[in-house]
Design goal:
Layout: H1 2-17, H2 32-36, E1 45-46, H3 48-57, E2 61-65, H4 69-74, E3 81-82, H5 88-91, E4 100-104, H6 109-120, E5 126-129, H7 132-139
Length: about 150
């Protein structure tokens, strides 16, 4: 019994006194590169012109607006469903699995995070709208409200 206690105390002592490089910590978080560049933005990006072609092409996809509800009420793309980014983790089951998902926000930053999150949740085909609804308003529909 005494030997067991001695051995356990040595392990505890070593844990707190050993240099950091000698400690073996499990990898629980993404690396710095993964955290900064979570996905290849070119592969997972769609331009406003490409989205317009998709809308007229007839193939099924989900258009997801991840802006806040007040932003959605001001202006949104026809056919979009609204799930604010802060609620996405709780409400992602509202998105039909298997369909391609196009995510957009105001200028493209929240949609990048949302696309990465959806991929982590198992969605296979997720793209974000480059420049968000703001770029859509500049290139495609100049009549919609810009804010």
């Amino acid at each position: 019994m005494f030997e067991y206690i001695k051995k356990t105390l040595r392990k505890i002592w070593w844990h707190f006194t050993a240099p950091a490089r000698d400690r073996k910590l499990p990898k629980a978080a993404p690396s710095v590169m993964e955290a900064i560049l979570p996905l290849d933005t070119d592969t997972y990006t769609i331009t406003p012109r490409q989205l317009k072609e998709m809308m007229h092409g007839g193939r099924p996809f989900v258009l997801l607006d991840v802006r806040e509800e007040w932003e959605y009420q001001m202006v949104h793309l026809e056919g979009a469903i609204s799930i604010p980014f802060g609620e996405l983790l709780k409400r992602f089951r509202e998105i039909k699995p298997g369909n391609e998902v196009i995510v957009y926000c105001h200028r493209g930053m929240r949609s990048l995070d949302a696309a990465f999150l959806l991929q982590q949740l198992g969605f296979k085909s997720v793209k974000r709208l480059l420049g968000g609804i703001d770029q859509w308003a500049q290139e495609i529909d100049t009549q919609i409200l810009r804010y």
